[in-house]
């Protein structure tokens, strides 16, 4: 049997640190459920002291994960951080506190103003203090990738003696090359007493496009936990991409003497979910989950793949959940077929909600000959996005053309149930719709990005619009909307962004 490599997902913590990727608690819970379904070993659910919203997310995720996986909260090596994380993690069946500090010369000198001895003292205190609250404590040596190896050995040794159960060796700035990162891990294994009884974790960033290679090199040299994110989201150029390391280990398990327990057929869904919720599109040529990852366009390649798939494909698309479904859903399909297919896709609904879901499905099916899995995913995600919407767009009518002045009439319901019918003109149909919506909503944001893409197939495809609006305090909020009518998608996306702005502000205030 090969070594088990634990997959530590930090999409909800480091991933959320991507510009524009902030998520509210509801959205984090949707992703956390998917992570549980994928069978990851650890979910880093947030940084509890950073805001009441993060505290709530860690606590709620601890509740839904139960004993299925470890739930982890990040802290600095500061007592108050550790106390707050311990409090947030009380709901978790398997809680872990992730604490640590910078260890490279520049972090010690310029950020922390600590000598090496003071840093060791802080690390020992933080680990032993965290152990008073939970049995599982992970110590991170931030910027280990640029640290002095002698000092790294000393501080890791001290953390292990203080009771760390996991030691995390991050390449925080993505500076390393595969040929010098694994050697650090091998050296720690050789020189730190008792390291054989703790898990060695690696947390690599992608500044030079090396994150996956570094993580695998670390595994070859003895690491047994990888910290990663869906779609490689994360600070700057991102973190190690979960789907890449998991599939690389699956394809090269023998050479690496490694396996993971991740359910790989869930990878594509996880990728779409994260992209939909954060509004950050996946590049089409992204390994494993990009739209082109299994597309063959040249005649020679098509000919080869038709003769034998593995001439140009190393992964069976079905293994990552990218294969199409056999059930054809249309306006003639009943409740049972829809419930069955949604169940296969991992979505279940209470009976009282299902009529609503079915009615929305019929609306889509009326406009399309065939409803594909992507339509269903878009439909469910749209529903999830609208949970606790402050404003709901009930109807939109737009007249435009040459020489008409674009005019929009919108019907919007607010959270107390009042209906507003508003009308506005604009420079184009979308502008008119947004101006009409602005007449009702109580907040203001400047439109800073507007993107349209077809997310399903055919001339009657569902078009998804992503917008980013910038609030007066400079914060960016992303909204998405999907519909067969692009103007309606645009209006839904705008209302969604406004709802997020309001929900995020409320969640940060702990409301
Ligand atoms: O990149 C990093 O070093 C981190 C730590 C906080 C683990 O994200
Ligand atoms: Zn990081």
TrEMBL record:
Keywords assigned by UniProt, alphabetized: Amino-acid biosynthesis, Branched-chain amino acid biosynthesis, Cytoplasm, Leucine biosynthesis, Manganese, Metal-binding, Transferase
Cofactor(s) required, per the database record: Mn(2+)
Superkingdom field: Bacteria
Listed GO MF terms: 2-isopropylmalate synthase activity; acetyl-CoA C-acetyltransferase activity; manganese ion binding
One GO process term, biological-process aspect: L-leucine biosynthetic process
CC per GO annotation: cytoplasm
Signal peptide annotation: none
The Pyruvate carboxyltransferase domain, residue ranges: 5-268
Top enzyme class: transferase
Binding of Mn(2+), residues: 14, 203, 205, 239
Matching SUPFAM superfamilies: 2-isopropylmalate synthase LeuA, allosteric (dimerisation) domain (SSF110921), Aldolase (SSF51569)
Pathway: Amino-acid biosynthesis; L-leucine biosynthesis; L-leucine from 3-methyl-2-oxobutanoate: step 1/4
A Pfam family reported for this protein in Swiss-Prot or TrEMBL: HMGL-like
NCBIfam families found in the cross-reference section: leuA_bact, PRK00915.1-3
Family: Belongs to the alpha-IPM synthase/homocitrate synthase family. LeuA type 1 subfamily.
Subunit relationships: Homodimer.
Name assigned to this protein: 2-isopropylmalate synthase
Source species of the chain: Parolsenella catena
Lineage: Bacteria, Bacillati, Actinomycetota, Coriobacteriia, Coriobacteriales
